[in-house]
Amino acid sequence: MAHDPAASAAVADLQRLVALGPSHQDWQTELEAETARLSGTPHVVAVASANVALHCVLAASHLQPDDEVIIPAYLPPSIPEVIRQFDAHPILVDIDAESAHLDAHQVANSLTDRTRAIVVVDIAGLPVDIRPLSRLCQEHQLLLVNDAQTQSPGISARGDLQGNQVRIYHCRSAETSLLSSGALICTADAVLAERLRNGITPLDELTDEAKQWDARRSLHYADRMTDLAAVWQLAAFGKARQAWRRRSQIAMSYTAAFSCRREFQVPFERPDASHTWLEYPLRLNLQHLGVTRDEFTSELRRRGVCVTVPYLPVNLMPHYQARYGVGAETFPVARNEFLRRVCLPIDGRMSDSAIDRVVDTVMSFADDLQDRRLTNSVMR
């Protein structure tokens, strides 16, 4: 088996922390305290996963059957399923083409007297601008939940949460998803934080009968983050800023290279917030390329570049189309953005030569397509 230096370094970090032994607090409490320091948020609760986090937040906010929660059409498909666990209704709204975030202008038209919350999701590491939604939520006394995706509190946003707002950070790493499973709930609302803590049952307090998979919730029986995951996340915090700086350097190299080509549209960045670059979502101007997004990605993979595509918008999934009565045309921006986006490699461990290979391969393919279009034009 090939030796993986990055995985070995991660295990060494874990061993170092474990060797210190727990202090007067448990590991989860230490993780919560460190997250509070990094994010500038007074209350942090560590839980087993992002789905558990959303479920706990909605439960602590007393979401009831037939209540409504507004969500963007472009988001992880697990989010509407968590909302349905309360017999509540996810209300889909289209996204803004520039940021791929929930279109705040359309949200106001979707409000009803049953609306209780709005859930927004950072896409590819770009923080959502929650200011216009925050004003709307304050006016209508709604909960605002920001699924931040990133595991780097303190980089993308800090200390900007108000009483009706919650931010969820994911705990995960490139080395393993098993050891780093978990999520961190941040809030400025002391009452909500107390409800969250009271609603979480530690594993050692569960009866044998309760230690079962809860099929209705689709969650593990234990909501609490494990000690191992908490230690792993503490180790990850120590490397998060360095890894973010490297991903930012890679993103700058990509943007400098592709911004001069009409075939490409580089990612949108907010001048008032730091992009964490979980992905580099390059948008294709398909009318200038002359191929589809899938043809583009297939050829890049054949040439050795490991590109990916984003998850499907809800309105393009047959399951949700049947459940919610939506189609591809219901949310055209979400559909169109999905069909033109590719995600380039942006691993913080990439070498400069690896970055150059990605840029050269993409540019070479774009040149080949341009030559093909010119040849076809001459032949006609």
Poorly predicted segments: 174-178, 209-221
Q: How much of the polypeptide forms β-strand, as a percent range?
A: 5-15%
Tally of DSSP helical segments: 13
Helix fraction, binned, reads 40-55%
Question: How would a crystallographer describe the biggest sheet?
Answer: 7 strands, mixed
Distance between the termini: 55 Å
> What is the strand tally?
10
Total discrete domains: 2
Largest sheet strand order: 1-7-6-5-4-2-3
Query: What coarse outline follows from CA principal-axis ratios?
Result: globular
Write the layout of secondary structure elements.
Elements: H1 5-20, H2 27-39, E1 43-47, H3 50-60, E2 68-72, H4 78-84, E3 89-93, H5 104-110, E4 115-121, H6 131-140, E5 143-147, E6 165-171, E7 182-187, H7 190-198, H8 227-258, E8 264-265, E9 280-284, H9 286-289, H10 293-302, H11 318-324, H12 332-339, E10 341-344, H13 352-379
Parallel strand pairs: 2-3, 2-4, 4-5, 5-6
Antiparallel strand pairs: 1-7, 6-7, 8-9, 9-10
Please give a quick description of this structure.
This protein is α/β, with parallel strands linked by helices. The chain has helices at residues 5-20, 27-39, 50-60, 78-84, 104-110, 131-140, 190-198, 227-258, 286-289, 293-302, 318-324, 332-339, 352-379, and strands at residues 43-47, 68-72, 89-93, 115-121, 143-147, 165-171, 182-187, 264-265, 280-284, 341-344. It has two domains: 5-234, 3-Layer(aba) Sandwich (Aspartate Aminotransferase, domain 2); 240-379, Aspartate Aminotransferase, domain 1.
